[in-house]
Amino acid sequence: MRHFLPCLICVFVICAFVGCDIINPKESEPSYLKIDTITVTSDPVIEGSNSARITDAWIYIDKNLIGAYELPCNIPVLNEGTHEILVGGGIQVNGISALRTPYPFYKLWSSTVELSAGETAFALPEVSYFDSLNFALNANFDDLSGNKLEATIASDTIVSLTNSVDKVFEGNGSFLSSLRRDSGFVEFQTVEALNLPKQGAFVYAELNYKTSHELSIGLASYYPVSATQRTLIINLNPTDTWKKVYLNLTDAVSTQVNASNYRLFFYSFKYPGTGDLELLIDNLKIIH
To answer: Domain of 166?
Structure first.
């Protein structure tokens, strides 16, 4: 015991001189990587519009996943020097903020970046579609002589295309369905029946939309000898500005294992006193 107290005093003295660096070592200063937006490039003839709504960046450094970050982001990383960076475009599935995933049809963007402690490196990712994709439907509605959507027999109104500047998202035209009377029901669907892959293969729909009333979108599965099965995918809230949504059709297709083909359908109710109904759609794609 007589020797313990002097030893304890020596420990405190040593810590005072060295600042207890051994107990509390200094942390390394991180580098920073800043990404404001991720854009999409596309072949307008084969892949259609490059319109996108990428909300998140999935970031890899030297092929190691760092994390997924909501855009814009400025993230700290402990790497320094020259490194390979991969960035994936992340989306909100069915427009739901809690369902976030890399879009399976966008390639990872690749580049090299120089990282220095305390400094910020900027990245400007551009992603593109994979080359082997099948665009089962690719409608930009620019050709006013034809349409890829048709009204069903249940609909209270016909559908049309418009080239009115205030109703077109981009290009020369958009799809339009409107109902002026006090109440009614609007329903339309893809003109062509679509052959889509099952067994869990990814199938997505993309579209730009603007709607005065709630718009419901689903998938109709057709069987050779039995009734058609209809699966609701999403209810889109009214919006007076154009929005983009990615719809995951994978489960709706794969669970209907004996269906021969499919159609995407849309409907909206106009209740009395709710004002004119107007639905606008552009750049409708179905991809697998």
So the answer is: 135-287
